[in-house]
Amino acid sequence: MPHPHRSALFLPASNPRAIAKARTLPCDVVILDLEDAVAPDAKTQSRAAALEAAAQGFGERRLVIRANALDTPWGEVDCAALRDSPVDAVLLPKVDGPAAARRARALLGEEGPPLWAMIETCCGVLALADLCADTPALRLEGLIAGTNDLAKEMRLPADPARAALMPLLVQMVVAARAYGLIVLDGVCNALDDGDRLGAECAQGRMLGFDGKTLIHPSQIAPANTAFGPSPDEIAWARAVVAAFADPANAVLGAIRLDGQMVERLHLAQAERLLALA
Ligand SMILES: CC(C)(COP(=O)(O)OP(=O)(O)OC[C@H]1O[C@@H](n2cnc3c(N)ncnc32)[C@H](O)[C@@H]1OP(=O)(O)O)[C@@H](O)C(=O)NCCC(=O)NCCSC(=O)C[C@H](O)C(=O)O
Ligand SMILES: [Mg+2]
What we know:
Layout: E1 7-12, H1 16-22, E2 29-33, H2 43-56, E3 62-66, H3 75-82, E4 89-92, H4 98-108, E5 115-119, H5 122-126, H6 128-133, H7 135-138, E6 140-145, H8 147-154, H9 166-178, E7 182-185, H10 194-207, E8 211-214, H11 220-227, H12 231-245, E9 254-257, E10 260-263, H13 264-276
Parallel strand pairs: 1-2, 1-8, 2-3, 3-4, 4-5, 5-6, 6-7, 7-8
Antiparallel strand pairs: 9-10
The structure holds ligand LIB3CWND and magnesium ion.
Ligand LIB3CWND binds near residues 11, 17, 187 and 215.
């Protein structure tokens, strides 16, 4: 049964109230951050807090811990500490290519947690194909778009439409789909602008992302709605499954359904959608 990844809530591992709150929230994934949301002086203490929180678990929510980058004083210790922890994945920030991911895999161990990579540098975007081609050895499971860091490096002016990021986001989705990876859109910094969040969620869904990374509990419901199957999609999927289950269609590859051509590739799509629903 596939696990949904509609809403992935970041929270600083240094914030015990947020950790406690996350266990009550309807997000699909919790990402405990050891990187940008944690001040340098709090890194060591936050790593211990994250390990403790992982041991206690987050119920049905998947748990991912974002380590510090390997070129910082904390990254290697983070990865080594996460090697035997009961996390669903370790998220490595600022992955520039397969070399950094291989270093992380060596520290996490061959049998250690799966790896997720943040694609948030220009080199990282250029290296997507090489990185993803190494998926089996890296045990790479997911990609996350780091839109703040990308906008910073590309020197983009503020743009709610994210126009300049569109081609990069498409590349991430293509790379993820080519190698069977989960792929999540970047965060929306506008905490009090529901319209902007709604627009970004709709945009991410149209681009093919599985879900969105989030920074506040108030962003979970809009993401769950946008990235979950809609009632129309569920009705369509049920109709497709029923049509192909009809013995009259048993030998057909393509059929007419409600004025549309439907093929067996749509049946697979419909079955996946119903499993997620
Ligand atoms: C952004 C915040 C600092 C805002 O904090 P604040 O104004 O204090 O929030 P509220 O008062 O509205 O909080 C209300 C209650 O909700 C809890 N809360 C808030 N945020 C979270 C959260 N993310 N997860 C769980 N719970 C949360 C508060 O504790 C309050 O609870 P209670 O006191 O019990 O009522 C803050 O929201 C925050 O820290 N957000 C996460 C920031 C973060 O993790 N950033 C790093 C990831 S994003 C990133 O790095 C981008 C990427 O790399 C890129 O390049 O794009
Ligand atoms: Mg970043």
